[in-house]
Amino acid sequence: MKLVFATNNSNKLKEVQALVSSQIEILSLSDIGCTEDIPETSPTIEENAMQKAKYVKNHYGYDCFADDTGLEVEELNGEPGVYSARYAGEKKDANANMDKLLTALDNKQNRNAQFKTVIALEMGGKLETFTGLCTGSITHTKKGEGGFGYDPIFMPNGYDKTFAEIPLTEKNKIGHRGKAVQKLIEFLNA
């Protein structure tokens, strides 16, 4: 089976490829010649994932899955949420995003947060969605060299390390994307 994963993020691609069986070949956007930025103009994480999956199916004809992920911080009423990648501006600068978030939480007691990933699968004329959540808290400083995005400031519940300090194999077991991908795989294998 061949499926397109609608992403240009090589880190996300590696995470998903590590979870998928060898019976499913995952193609990237570059593998199918998609070089344009796929619109992400929806107001929710769910709708953005669906928008991207439908775009690839409609413009390239491939069965496709797409994800959208947001970091939702309780103290900030769910921000940055759907705007997580562009929280500090259109450059999608992870360090600037983390700095802005840490500043927004300066002197705040409630640092509870969750990562939310929604995967939308457009296959065989049907659209399915799969959600993965990982709860935790925002640290006061950046820690760790691994991961990407907000990983250096997100500490999952039950851990004393950030996502950036946890090996990828462990992150895939407990993380939001891993949980959503696991639901996708179970669906594909059913």
Task: Give a quick summary of the entry.
This protein has 190 residues and is an alpha/beta fold. The protein is 31% helix and 25% strand.
- The SS-based structural class is alpha/beta
Question: Any low-confidence stretches, pLDDT <50, length ≥5?
Answer: none
The largest sheet, given as strand count, sense and whether it forms a barrel, is: 7 strands, mixed
Percent helix, as a range, is 25-40%
Radius of gyration, CA atoms, in whole angstroms: 16 Å
Give the DSSP E fraction (strand runs of 2 or more residues): 15-25%
What is the N-to-C succession of helices and strands? EHEHEEHEEEHH
Q: What is the CA–CA distance across the termini?
A: 14 Å
- Give the total of domains: 1
Strand tally: 7
CATH architecture: Alpha-Beta Complex
The general outline is: globular
CATH topology: Maf protein
The CATH top-level class label: Alpha Beta
Mean pLDDT, as a whole number? 93
Total of helices: 5
Overview of the molecule:
The protein is α/β, with parallel strands linked by helices and 190 residues long. The protein has a single domain, classed as Maf protein (Alpha-Beta Complex). 31% of the residues lie in helices and 25% in strands. The chain is built from five helices and seven strands, in the order βαβαββαβββαα. Strands 1, 2, 3, 4, 5, 6 and 7 form a seven-stranded mixed β-sheet that branches. α1 links the parallel β1 and β2. The longest helix has 16 residues, at 45-60. The two termini are 14 Å apart. The relative contact order is 0.16. The model has no long low-confidence stretch (mean pLDDT 93).
